[in-house]
Design brief:
It contains three helices and seven strands, in the order αβαββαββββ. A hairpin with a 7-residue loop joins β2 and β3. It has two domains: 29 residues; 107 residues, no CATH class. By secondary structure, it is α+β, with helices and mostly antiparallel strands.
Length: 140
């Protein structure tokens, strides 16, 4: 009877450690997954603009880093001003080759509130008068 209890006490933690090691080494523990938009935008030091719709927020961080991707739609009118208000530690870049508008956290400032070391905001104008907004916030 005592031998069975000792075996269980020894094997249970070993099984747990083995399971955790499998999850970490296989990468399954760090696959992108849905998360709350408040968590994702808070990590970027901002908040979701009130006008945003079709919100999709993903935690795509890994073992040693943290990262989020947020996609949404907004009315095109005054989108730059609304994004600067929602993410005050960002600045609009004068030129962008990938987006219609692009913002990033200012390199002259400390980390934005929330902990991300880098923030990228990209805006693509849609034909229906909306703007497709992609936020990427991460640590490097």
């Amino acid at each position: 009877m005592t031998r069975g209890i000792v075996t269980a006490v020894v094997l249970a933690p070993l099984c747990f450690v083995g399971l955790v090691a499998y999850e970490v080494l296989s990468g399954k523990a760090f696959e992108p997954h849905k998360t709350g938009c408040a968590e994702a935008t808070g990590f970027a030091g901002g908040r979701m603009p009130e006008e945003a719709t079709d919100k999709k927020c993903v935690d795509d961080g890994g073992w040693l880093d943290q990262g989020y991707t947020v996609e949404s739609r907004m009315p095109r009118e005054d989108v730059a001003a609304k994004l600067l208000k929602a993410f005050p530690r960002t600045r609009q870049l004068p030129d962008s080759y990938e987006w219609d508008l692009e913002f990033t956290n200012s390199q002259e400032t400390d980390r934005p509130a929330g902990g991300a070391s880098h923030i990228e905001l990209g805006v693509d104008y849609e034909e229906d008068g909306t703007a497709s907004v992609t936020l990427r916030a991460f640590n490097v």
